[in-house]
Amino acid sequence: MRILVAVVLTAVLWPAYAVAATGDGDWRHKSLLGLRYNRLGLSWFSDTGYRVPLSKKKTLLLKNTYVEVGGHAKVSPASFHPGVYAEVVPIAPIRLRATVMKLTYFGTYTALFDFEEGQDADWSDDELDRIEDESLARYGTGLEVQGIAQLRLKFGKILALYESRLSYLKVDDVKAGNTWYETTYDILMEPEDGIHVMYATLGFILWGNTDRDMLILGTRYQRDSTFETDIQRQILSGALLWRPSKSSWFWGAKPTFGFLGGGYLEDQYREGEPIFHAFMVLEWAKL
Hints:
Strand content: over 45%
Number of helices: 2
Distance between the termini: 37 Å
Order of helices and strands: HEEEEEEHEEEEEEEEE
Structural class: mainly beta
Helix content: 10-25%
Oligomer: single chain
Largest sheet: 12 strands, antiparallel, barrel
């Protein structure tokens, strides 16, 4: 896990900040508001960064390549995780990102709660509801380092996306041998643990273009795997993505709306049950 942290910081974060400091770019902001059902969750993700183009060429591989660095925040009713990020698109199909966050849990809902039973803990929805109802969670802090690699391909109207996310999480004041429930990933982890999240998405553009307004229908497969607690999860969902034209309703931002509905193919407690996600993204370029 410590090797992952070193690789993320050395290979992406520091070089990206060095390039951005010498480039001629612009400031931009991106906000994502997401709602999840089963288990219920609400989160807001925010990036405010400085983007420097890597090439002015409009070729297939070099179009829209850039380096972007800035501040990141992940906020929910139970937590606040501020941090910094660096994002690099060296060629159009590949996107790399590194993020370092300070984790803060408010002691509300189920964050932060640790289980003395360790990996044998009951973290079912009924038990999490009991923890929430009895206000058993406490204030807690920690660190998360995340690396993302994404491959994006387009063949006419067909889109394909593969994304791999590796995250290292370390929380303070959780005893060795205990485990804790992480609300964003909705999973049980050890005090120092990691999680790999993989997405494979296939979509079809019903109308529009990915550079402008569009409507996309597709399907997404997700697989989650923790390193220390060894928990496996698989989800298959249908996906709908809509990006309308810019509107005064969104203060000059480029809006995107998405919906995912599917089910758990594999899960310790929810196998065969449904899961739904809805989200809205607002992007402001060249602030």
